[in-house]
Amino acid sequence: MEVNVLDISGKETGAKVQLPESVFGVEPNDHAIYLDVKQYLANQRQGTHKSKQRNEIAGSTRKLHKQKGTGGARAGSIKSPLFNGGGRIFGPQPRDYSFKLNKKLKALARKSALSYKAKENNIVVLDDVNFDSIKTKNYINLVNNLKVAEEKTLLVLAEQNNNVYLSSRNLKKTKVITANQLNTYDVLNAGKLLLTAASVKTLEEAFAK
Fold first, then answer.
1. Would residue 147 be called left, alpha or beta, if left means φ above 0 and alpha means ψ between -120 and 50 degrees?
2. Same domain, 35 and 62
3. Among 35, 154, 190, 9, which residue's Cα sits nearest to residue 106?
4. Which residue(s) pair with 57 in the sheet?
5. Same domain, 121 and 193
6. Contact assessment for residue 74 and residue 42, using Cβ atoms and an 8 Å cutoff
7. What pLDDT, on a 0 to 100 scale, did the predictor assign at position 81?
8. Residue 17: per-residue pLDDT
9. CATH code of residue 177
10. How far apart, in whole angstroms, are the C-alpha atoms of residue 111 and residue 184?
11. Does residue 116 share a domain with residue 76?
12. An example of a Gene Ontology BP annotation on this entry (predicted)?
């Protein structure tokens, strides 16, 4: 699949980039995508939720009243889960939600997500993206020139560029990552995928391993 290469002003440079079929033209595997996105979201969870059990509640352990003869249910302590302020039965405890997936499945999920973007013509290839200074206005001009200001965009660079990253950080609908940080969730969450010619080559080399 050939794509015209644009510059940061949104004009065609005359060059074209071949999106490799092995990365952007595979048969998408929806279940692999589901598992990879599920893992990504699970890994974001802190898992620090905690409620107190009856042995952790501050309070007296004195028996509230005699066992029999009151006409009410027996009660052993004010910390019983049956009373307001008592402990909680089977409440949440700190845990690790992360789980592992094998590398081949994760690679298939990423290629499937990229293939969906290619089929929907939601990939824009740029010659290069670089700013002389850190200004949010620079990135706003970029998305305006590419006519994608109203969409969520994911810009994938071949290597880290602080000027570009910091210029985009204040904008809600944009995200800038490097090719080695690419993940299925970010690709699918973006309306338009912005790649540089160098990042296309980096992705091809990464998935060829």
1. left
2. no
3. 35
4. none
5. yes
6. no
7. 92
8. 87
9. 3.40.1370.10
10. 8
11. no
12. translation
Domain that holds residue 178: 2-46+101-208
In angstroms, the CA 121 to CA 114 distance is 11
User: Is the residue at 124 inside a domain?
Assistant: yes
Q: What is the pLDDT of residues 36-90, one digit of tens each?
A: 999 999 999 999 999 999 999 998 889 999 999 999 999 999 999 999 999 999 9
**Tokens encoding 179:** 């090719």
Which amino acid would we find at residue 12? E
Q: What is the rounded CA–CA span in Å between residue 207 and residue 2?
A: 19
Supply φ then ψ for residue 14, to 5 degrees: 95, -15
State pLDDT tens for residues 3-23.
888 888 888 888 888 899 999
- Considering the domain architecture, whether residues 74 and 29 belong to the same structural domain is answered as no
SS3 letters across the chain: CEEEEECCCCCEEEEEEECCHHHHCCCCCHHHHHHHHHHHHHHHCCCCCCCCCHHHCCCCCCCCCCCCCCCCCCCCCCCCCCCCCCCCCCCCCCCCCCCCCCHHHHHHHHHHHHHHHHHCCCEEEECCCCCCCCCHHHHHHHHHHCCCCCCCEEEEECCCCHHHHHHHCCCCCEEEEEHHHCCHHHHHHCCEEEEEHHHHHHHHHHHHC
- pLDDT-based confidence at residue 209 (cuts at 50, 70, 90): low
Per the structure, the count of domains in the chain is: 2
